[in-house]
Amino acid sequence: MAVIGATSGTGAKARWAVLDVIVVVYALVPVLWIVSLSFKTKETIADGNFIPRSWTLQNYKDIFTTNEFLRALFNSIGIALIATAIAVVLGTMAAYAIARLDFPGKQALVGVSLLIAMFPQVSLVSPLFEMERSLGLFDTWPGLILPYITFALPLAIYTLSAFFREIPWELEKAAKMDGATPAQAFRRVIAPLAAPGVFTTAILVFIFCWNDFLFAISLTSTEASRTVPAALSFFTGSSQFEDPTGTISAAAVVITIPIILFVLFFQRRIVAGLTSGAVKG
Amino acid sequence: MAEIVLDKVTKRYPDGALAVSDVDITIADGEFIILVGPSGCGKSTTLNMIAGLEDITTGELRIDGQRVNERAPKDRDIAMVFQSYALYPHMSVRENMAFPLRLAKVDKDTVTKKVEEAARILDLGQHLDRKPGNLSGGQRQRVAMGRAIVRDPKAFLMDEPLSNLDAKLRVQMRTSVSKLQRRLGTTTVYVTHDQTEAMTLGDRVVVMRGGLVQQIGSPQFLYEQPKNLFVAGFIGSPSMNFVPGSLENGQLSTPLGAFPLTDRIRSLVESANAPREVVVGLRPEHFEDAALLDDSAKASGGAFTATVDVLESMGSDKFAYFTVDGDTATSAELDELAADLGSTDSSDSGSQLVTRLSAASAAAEGASLEVWFDSDKIQIFDPQDGRNLTLES
To answer: Has the ipTM of the complex gone over 0.85?
Structure first.
């Protein structure tokens, strides 16, 4: 826990502890509430209790028995992974060029990618809808992957070029002097050092694709490509008059799990200060 | 091991800036040569051109008689030590040193043997499995040297390798670098802005200024026979003192008083066709406390009396600083030297003098002192083009 300067001592520690607890509770209460809802029975779902009075796994059973949710989960994972992989590979190349090379139109490239990042996505939905319908991309995986890549690339380029700029230029010169070809220098020296940046970017891009609702709801119409955030909105209860809160909560809990796994898996590779010791210190 | 020849090598950047102009240097096999000069003089650019990290605009670079202008750095078989060391932070010391050998596809046993031998030479044995991040500055510097020596390259290039070390370690590493080079006998080109390193390390020193080679020679030769004002002012620590002077009938009038030229200097100055107004250079060690000399010794020089501004006692010597009234010597080259040292405050009250006196001197700060100087050791320069008028040809 951070103890700043003169405020050390048990009093200060207690104050920090209280502050930390407030922040954690503030952040986690909505999540825990959803988890709580997902374990409640239909009868108690609206009782307002934080801890369910009667526990059930029925909601989870329900979502996994319908093909609808499983298919959406499969779409989500597939689309997000493919979009992330392509965006990170393209972003790495673009960011390396931006950080290292001086080429005509560099400022324009950076400016345009910034413009895309700032463009309100909702204003693009209608034209994209028409374009994808006439191109036959509507309600397909590529139909979602393409816009995801487009909007994730500026993010990827920005994050990655910041990381590449951190890598001392002289390391590449040293590799050249040691007898490496440019490809060897990139693969054996630059890429390992840029790895934390690549993983950070991958996580950010994956989360962006995974959470997207706007494109998912606008550019899909069937189970063929509908992702989980869109599919959730199509959940119905067992009858027309029944509220699907329980199943939606269960589905919401389930789709946070891949994100948590993804972050935990890559977090171990994000070692801050990996470049320390390269140059004088 | 190889001979490196720079034949009218010029570097002009696309924006038209001329970084290095017509550099002609022949570096003999096994020679330790130093490129020295103030920042922006083109010494690092010259080194990068030898390395292949920068293109040569015109001229030819030959290693062992072969033109290598178009060869990539990896095909030139030369190793480089960078100012920042440029160690690979994700590799251990062993992997760092093995990297050039592994790229060269040397078999594993040889790699291990060579890395261990280099580690032994550089006293890095117990650090082989550590990461550069956990090493001290001096150790990192040695790893950088190790990475250069493992593959027995034709030449070493060193770009200010010691400038990131603290003063004490720098002196120590200077000796190690010198010993290492003698032991390996590999042609070495070493860039520095520190004239002490240049004087102590090199077989020969190349003084550069504004992309032009000023003079090439052994450290002692540059010290005693500087070709121009710039070299005279750059080489030597503390640096040479400059005062304005005017020549008339074999007499030299300076702010230190007027005195006759010695016969040796008079004939040199006459054959060099000297102008009337000149710049006079005096090395600090050519001064002495007049009280310590007998009359016969004093007769062979000039003397002046001034107040000691600052006195630094080094134990073996005393450095006394004076301000001498009168004009100060001016020339473009002296201005540049002053700018490089960061001393832009040109005192208008008179010339600053540094003198090295014997430790026995009774000089005291604030007290007046009579100082003798050896008038046969003075150097006289043309203030217009900076050339030394007292060069023995």
So the answer is: no
